[in-house]
Amino acid sequence: MRRLTRILGTLLIAGGVLTLAWVVVVWRWEDPFTALYTHVQQTRLAHTYEQRAAAFRTRLARGNLASVERQVAVEARAYGHTLHRGDAVGRLRIGRIGLKMVVVQGTDHETLKKGPGHYVESGLPGEGRLIYVAGHRTTYLAPFAWINTLRVGDYARFEVPYGTFTYRVTRHYVVAEHDVGVLRDRGAEILRLQACHPRFFASHRYIVDARLVAVAPRGGNPYTPVRSAST
Predict the structure, then answer these.
(1) Minimal CA–CA distance to 115: which of 125, 100, 126, 130?
(2) How far apart are the C-alpha atoms of 46 and 91, rounded to whole Å?
(3) Cis before 143? omega within 30
(4) DSSP letter assigned to residue 61
(5) Residue 120, CA distances (Å) to 30, 57, 89, 105, 190 in order
(6) β-strands 190-197, 131-134: how paired?
(7) What does the alpha-carbon distance between residue 125 and residue 162 come to, in Å, rounded to a whole number?
(8) pLDDT in tens, 60-118
(9) What is the CB neighbour count within 10 angstroms for residue 157?
(10) Which stretches of 31-135 are assigned E, i.e. beta strand?
(11) pTM of the model
């Protein structure tokens, strides 16, 4: 009986050590099993995005700055009408956290397994509205694992078929899990990134806001948005 107790005790200790080791691995290097799934999905999405971008027809942006911005907004809305849940939206790059992934249309559980998800009711780059993107922190390649390390002034670049849009981080904050106020569009183009907080839990949401500061329309000249130029 004592021998059995010792064996069970040893197994429990070993199990605890392995569990702790696994938590450390996931914390530092993310979950390798779910990461493999997302890697495969990202490869597929990258291929379909390249096809989508090549097929998308843009008009050469002409006229004064306000006119060009209106043309880009029209193209953003037209592109949005072509997107369905699970489609590749564009490429998101954030140097500070080493992120370079395809954004997927939708923020439901299954879609977020494939990569960062674009909330379908929010805007697209160049539309002049809130753009809301959510992502995992510990599993499925953990695109926003280190979202908390982003600093004010860091840049995020969102490439879509009609241009590349650069956003500069302005603030970060934490809200309760069910705070829907973060989805409210306040009439300005803000890229809002969201992840669960703290890591391994979902009681709150970590939010990062970034303001549009530069646009490079496909087939046109780069420009600074009117609102950015005046702020």
Answers:
(1) 100
(2) 8
(3) no
(4) P
(5) 27, 22, 11, 6, 15
(6) parallel
(7) 9
(8) 667 789 999 999 999 999 999 999 999 999 999 999 999 999 999 999 999 999 999 99
(9) 19
(10) 88-94, 99-105, 117-118, 131-134
(11) 0.85
